[in-house]
Amino acid sequence: MKAFKMLAVLMLTFMIMAAPALAKDTIKIGAILAVTGPAAFLGAPEAKTLEMMVDEINKKGGIRGSKVELIIKDSGASPEKALSFAKQLIEEDKVLAIIGPSTSGETMKIKSVAEEGKTILISCAAAEVIVNPVAKYVFKTPQMDRDAVIKIFQQMKYMKLSKAGVLSSNTGFGKAGKEQIEKLAPEYGIQITANEVYDKAATDLTAEVTKVKASGAEAIINWSIEPAQAIVIKNARQLGFKGPIFQSHGFGNIKYVEAAGEAAEGVIFPAGRLLVVDILPKNHPQKAVLMKYKKDYESKYKEDASTFGGHAYDAMIILTRAIEKAGSTDKEAVRNAIENLKGVVGTGGVFTFSPQDHNGIDINAFSFEMITVKKGKFEILESSAKKGNSKKK
């Protein structure tokens, strides 16, 4: 009897001691994404991408033998919800890192929470202010707004256009893009003839587009991520605007083209090469990664892959690589590893981070291709400004 009691005590002791070790076998990763709501074109493919990747990682035995537990929170693009979820993921779920949010406004809302909680945040949003100035624990995967604006201005100069009417949504992404356009326009000899801000939930933008058309604009630059960007295109063509329409890198989902219909023909925008991977040369450094993601996603979900899902793909690649490099799941070790990653090939570019650069890609890191819409499909813009034609005025 005494031996039995001693055995029971030993077993209980073992179970108590083993519990923390078992907990460490799981890597908790949080994600705050706009799966539903006005930014669902961003968050839905991001969530699906992460679920697909985590399933694949776990089927292969996890990361360094540890399975990944993915906790997705649907913010609906609400900064307030994102803030509440961030606190929950950090304080209650004790996640190693958070991927997302989907939008810039949400990201800026939780940036300080990630810093205070010393929790890695890899945003899927584009605004430059997310990583400039640099915050210790905050990174992002989408290309810089600044670089997108430069690509558009280079193309305008190549097309001998100097007058642009600007439209932007009243979101964090819209505001950040608008600021970069205003800042860089003088450097490239671009005159802003009109500068209209519209509500992200707008269903008719005739009044705003009318002002832009009347301003003498030779081209329209629209900066948003919401479905309203398709309305800008439709209204502009309905009003008889004949000039080129440039969109931001927030246009990288074929659903926006479908929403605009025939009016989308000829739209020009900078984007990652996922949209045109099929026609990239075989020796392009991103080709293999892009092809794998596109094939895996489209075969699993029976829908086109988008650059937005690609942002989440890149975030997960970066986090996985950092955990492997760190050799542990210690937050500080993983954070330090991200900051020292070099030459990581993703869908949005080739990432090289540093203490001064928490985005890891610039205009020269295979980040952008100029894309146009032709017969309802995305194609590389053949008559685009190349490096030799990119000098400022």
Q: Could you explain how this protein is built, in words?
A:
A 5-stranded parallel beta sheet has the order 2-1-3-4-5, with helices on both faces. Strands 7-6-8-9 form a 4-stranded parallel beta sheet, sandwiched between helices. The chain folds into 2 domains: 10-143 and 287-351, 3-Layer(aba) Sandwich (Rossmann fold); 145-271 and 368-389, Response regulator (Rossmann fold), CATH 3.40.50.2300. With 393 residues, it is α/β, with parallel strands linked by helices. It has helices at residues 2-24, 40-59, 79-91, 104-116, 145-158, 172-184, 206-214, 228-238, 254-260, 287-301, 307-326, 331-339, and strands at 26-33, 67-74, 97-99, 120-123, 138-140, 163-169, 191-198, 219-223, 245-247, 268-271, 344-345, 350-351, 369-374, 377-380. Strand 8, helix 8 (228-238) and strand 9 form a beta-alpha-beta unit.
Task: Detail the topology: elements first, then pairings.
Layout: H1 2-24, E1 26-33, H2 40-59, E2 67-74, H3 79-91, E3 97-99, H4 104-116, E4 120-123, E5 138-140, H5 145-158, E6 163-169, H6 172-184, E7 191-198, H7 206-214, E8 219-223, H8 228-238, E9 245-247, H9 254-260, E10 268-271, H10 287-301, H11 307-326, H12 331-339, E11 344-345, E12 350-351, E13 369-374, E14 377-380
Helix pairs in contact: 2-11, 3-4, 5-6, 8-9, 11-12
